Amino acid sequence: MTAPEVEPALADMMNAVFAEYDQSSRPAAVSRDTSLWRRLDGLGLVRLTGAEQSGGSGAGWPEAAALMTAAIRHGVRIPLAEHDLLACWLLDAVGSPVDGAARTLCVLDEHGRAPGVPWASCAERIVIVWQVGGDFLVADADIDRIAITAGANMIGEPRDTVVADLECLTGVPAAPELVAKLHLKSALVRSIQVCAALDSALELSIDHAMSREQFGRPLSKFQAVQHLIADIATEAALARSATEAALSAAIASDWSAPHLEFLVAASRSCAGHAASVVVRNAHQVHGAIGTTSEHRLHRFTRAALAWRSEFGSVQYWDDRITDMSLQAGSNRLWNLISPS
């Protein structure tokens, strides 16, 4: 199963924007840089999937996946997915107005706390989800009304702790099915990002092996190096195939397919385990140069390791696959994998 393709002109434009920025800025500064955000907003890419009548561009997840991939390919880190695909989507879904403020999203626990919130310290507003009894509520909160303790993941992206007084929050109801859909959307975002990082690590490994020589011949001529790169390519392709299968099913069913959670879990599991192989082999192919901060490889390998643990760890998604498989039993397992 293959995800729907994106118009080549749009994909080229996305790559051109990020390539230009990549050549003029250091990636470490991207999280605090508002100039790129304004540029993307002017091109209609900040609310890429939003409805046109509410100020969006009316595109879909294939275009959003292409945008995320282009950003990662050029080492640009910016909360496009959290803003467009998660926070603004949820506000649209519950009927709340959306303005031009930059947003992220978090789910509070019973104490009003959410750790590891992506980009909270850089956002202008935070879409908050919390539960009262068996009901879910959603609020579009100004950052002045909540406490944010700055943190970061292993690649320096903001992963902050958000604390809010639940008694002071006023929200609109959200159906449990909507929150479940948010959970799957968040997980699939990270699958797409991990796959983009793995593909970039593969590309760098091939280029390095073809251009570097050892004992008078290219590294690519050594069988051991060939095996390392073959394993990188195989694992990256498996992760990408599983992710595209989940994305295609999500798009075709408007995120309501009965087996969608299984497919998302498979994509997260494949991407998470693939990251271990790709990171190890890519650094072996590059040797000592691949460990230096100046080399581009770590932009992708460390990012893949960081992202695979967010919105559910690899162990969590492995356990979900196991639980769903056992519940399906031998008679219904194939229908769970391939219902058609």
Automatic annotation (TrEMBL):
The keyword Oxidoreductase applies. Gene3D superfamilies: Acyl-CoA dehydrogenase/oxidase, N-terminal domain, Butyryl-CoA Dehydrogenase, subunit A, domain 3. Signal peptide: none annotated. InterPro entries: AcylCo_DH-like_C, AcylCo_DH/oxidase_C, AcylCoA_DH/ox_N_sf, AcylCoA_DH/oxidase_NM_dom_sf. It holds the Pfam family Acyl-CoA_dh_1. It comes from the Bacteria. Its cofactor is FAD. The keyword Flavoprotein applies. Keywords: FAD, Flavoprotein, Oxidoreductase. Residues 192-313 form the Acyl-CoA dehydrogenase/oxidase C-terminal domain. Belongs to the acyl-CoA dehydrogenase family. PANTHER family: ACYL-COA DEHYDROGENASE (PTHR43884), ACYL-COA DEHYDROGENASE FADE28 (PTHR43884:SF20). This is Acyl-CoA dehydrogenase.
